[in-house]
Amino acid sequence: VWIVVNDRVYDCTEYLELHPGGVDSIIINAGEDSTEDFVAIHSMKATKMLERYYIGDLDTKSVTAKKDDTEELVDAKGRKLALNPKKKLPFRLQSKTVLSRDSFLLDFALQSPEHILGLPTGKHMFLSANIDGEMVMRRYTPISSNFDVGCVKFVIKAYRPIPRFPNGGKMSQHLDSLKVGDTIDMRGPVGEFEYVSNGNFLLDGEECFASRFNMIAGGTGITPAMQVAAEILRHPNDATQ
Predict the structure, then answer these.
(1) CA 22 to chain centre
(2) What would the pLDDT profile of 80-135 be if each residue is shown by its tens digit?
(3) How far out from the chain centre does Cα 168 lie?
(4) How is the beta sheet containing 8-11 ordered, strand by strand?
(5) Which residues contact 109 (CB under 8 A, 6 or more apart)?
């Protein structure tokens, strides 16, 4: 699995299982120029670590213009999928609800009222935006699911500037500033965990089973835990505890 960052080619195969963000976060960029995504979420330490996997420079003269892949994605049931793992797509904010002094609910429209998000239970997605001249990308899990047709909803906490973090949360504050009609880029799904049904789940693609889940979650970790719990409770025949 190789990626390109700043016209330098890296073979990340050996690092796949070690990547803190999971295998999917690298796989979705495989064979692509990943400069924008890499810079948006990685520290200088990670940038230096990347050099261990350097294999050569990209021959930019031989690179042909990439065709715009506009093919519509569908699932096994023929439903139109809004998310594309290989391409960022803009989604329009259709409503905002203030929940508290620092929390709010954002409701984004999908491409049509018939589209479903296409996010498997347990996985998450990337939201990205150019903020003050800097590309910023963060992982988020929506509170909605594929049962919510035509929309995707997030509950966000805005992290304001404080002495310890004078800039606050760049993405959360940007999301708070969005007005109805504004757009944000989304891409996915990503993540190593996927709940299937009746206690069956995938972990890094490996089939697993559990009769009960013990979840410890706080802060932003509450949303993915709630997503799995909601999917289990949605089906009365699912005996998973």
Answers:
(1) 12
(2) 999 999 899 999 999 999 999 999 999 999 999 999 999 999 999 999 999 999 99
(3) 21
(4) 2-5, 8-11, 54-57
(5) 91, 92, 93, 94, 150, 151
